[in-house]
Amino acid sequence: MTVVTDVKARWDRVAQRLRAELGEDLYSSWFARMEIEDLDSGRLTVSVPTRFLKSWIETHYLSRLHKIGEAELGALDTVQVRVRMRGGLPPRPAVEESPPPAAPQPSVIPAASAPVVAAAQAVAAERVPQLDPGQTFGSFVVGPSNQLAHAAMCRVADAAPGAAISFNPLFIHAGSGLGKTHLLSAVAHRIRESRPDRKVMFLTAERFMINFVMALRQRDTLAFKDQFAAIDVLLIDDFQFLQGKTMQQEFCNAFNSLVDSRRQVVVAADVPPAQLDAIDQRMRSRLMGGLVVDIELPDLETRRRILRSRHETMLKRDPSVMIPEEVLEFIANRVTGSGRELEGALNRILAYQQFNQAAVTLDLASLVLRDMQANPDGSRIKIDDILKVVGRHFNVGRTDLLSPRRARSVVVPRQIGMYLAKKMTARSLPEIGRRFGGRDHSTVLHAVRKIEDQIKTDDKLAREVALLIRLVEQG
Ligand code: ADP
Ligand code: MG
Predict the structure, then answer these.
(1) N or C: less crowded end of the chain, CB within 10 Å?
(2) Smallest-distance ligand from the CA of 204
(3) Nearest one of 258, 270, 329, 331 to 295, comparing CA atoms
(4) Claim: this prediction has a pTM higher than 0.70
(5) For residues 321, 323, 328 and 331, what is the CA-based torsion angle, rounded to 10 degrees?
(6) In CATH, what class is 147-294?
(7) Confidence check: pLDDT of 1 > 60
(8) How many angstroms does the Cα of residue 237 sit away from the middle of ligand 2?
(9) Substitution site in 296, 340, 343 for ligand 1 pocket (most atoms within 8 Å of beta carbon)
(10) Whose CA is nearest to atom 13 of ligand 1?
């Protein structure tokens, strides 16, 4: 067992003990999302997704955590609770971040519970959630992975006041960075622009909880409830963070009264309703009663378009951030995750370029993105990998590459593939020939020589081949 998995296993035992000592309700309200970050010479660091949760745990459970931690992990000097960043990439400045916190004990809210209020105040004071002006329908790239979610959101945004509502609630789920918040913001923007008479409220589950705690504090829960009576569209983001029974009850009331009076509710979360473990079964089935759509990972073409559109936006702000087409293409191929990861990659390359005053080249991009590599240990390159990369890059099927077809659109990629196989693997010419659809070794030799020659004079081809080499290497 490695050290890391050993620590994880012991941490699991800490979690089990917490669960046993606190009971299921308390545990799932406050600890279900806690993760161990580090255990080093008596310093235990754990993380939670929100500041609210951090303050809550620090004020209520730190000594308990310390004690249980020591029982399972050995003597501890300190236990530190951190708020963890999502997505693993540097956050853009002033971006929403907003998970949610939690609030009160499972059943009774201690109306004047000072620590909750203090935590709520701390969070409430510093971050007024604002709509990102850049997140509109215009800047949202639609592809096969998100077109259903996009279409449903457009329907909501364009609905005429008083018109029959086709699905209520609309529930959107997707992993982090796939565009949920972007789409919710787009709805809010569009309604504010084109139907200013419709009242939209856009908030995260965290904000909902903070507002409620503050209302309790000011003994003004009526006003809190009343605000929902006046709105036409409620957009709730990061719903998975709704925590605590009282909060859920409160949300459920607001939700029911809106849906029952045929006002639109849109909920976004990182999992489908059935997997919202902390949420009461009745609430879950109400959420399933409308339209549930997900957003998948973007395909290559969508990633290209997201990158291009990002790059154009950056260029408008600062014309010096020119990124060559082949670098964008490289990123689109290398970074196969969410929109947030694509942006993170772009930002990283630009930051690096600015610090080092270096031109943005494929080499630079590949260096900067090295730790995002899928295949960092440089395992041996296979002809299959080359066929895959070449096929994808030129949009030619594998069958075509291996077939006898002589169309130029197939011949050139095939020759480049053979060239790469010769350069990048230890395979012999006859063997490469065999793997490329049973061709003989002289055909391979001809292809290799031809591409070698052309690269000397054709810059565009040289860059293209350099790109392909990178892509295959980083597989
Ligand atoms: P989520 O809320 O699902 O975690 P976000 O909406 O915050 O994700 O998206 C993360 C980043 O990626 C945002 O800057 C967003 O603008 C961008 N993004 C995600 N999907 C798309 C898309 N289809 N088109 C354009 N930008 C996108
Ligand atoms: Mg979001």
Answers:
(1) N
(2) 2
(3) 270
(4) no
(5) -70
(6) alpha beta
(7) no
(8) 7
(9) 340
(10) 340
| Ligand of minimum distance to the alpha carbon of 340 | 1
User: Does domain 383-474 sit in CATH 3.30.420.40?
Assistant: no
Q: Is the CB of 343 under 6 A from ligand 1?
A: yes
Mutate-to-test residue for ligand 1 from 96, 136, 182, 313, highest number of ligand atoms within 8 A of CB: 182
Closest Cα to residue 435, out of 402, 403, 471?
402
Cβ of 180 closer than 6 Å to ligand 1, yes or no, is: yes
Under 8 Å between Cβ of 296 and 143: no
- Where do the structural domains in the chain lie, given as residue ranges? 3-96, 147-294, 300-368, 383-474
ω before 99 within 30° of 0 (cis)? no
Compute the distance between CA of residue 296 and CA of residue 272 in angstroms, rounded to an integer.
Answer: 13
CATH code for the structural domain at 300-368: 1.10.8.60
- 147-174 pLDDT, tens digit per residue, is 999 999 999 999 887 777 778 999 999 9
Q: What pLDDT, on the 0 to 100 scale, is given for residue 129?
A: 57
**Could you check whether 3-96 and 147-294 share the same CATH topology?**
no
Tokens linked to 441: 């070794």
Q: In whole angstroms, give the CA distance from residue 240 to residue 269.
A: 5
Ligand 1 proximity of 238 Cβ (cutoff 6 Å): no
Q: What is the C-alpha to C-alpha distance for residues 209 and 231, in angstroms, rounded to an integer?
A: 18
d(CA 118, CA 128): 16
Amino acid, single-letter form, for residue 131: L
Task: Give the tens place of pLDDT for each residue, 223-236.
Answer: 888 888 889 999 99
Using one digit for the tens of pLDDT, what is the confidence trace for 284-306? 999 998 999 999 999 999 999 99
Atom of ligand 1 nearest to the CA of 146: 23
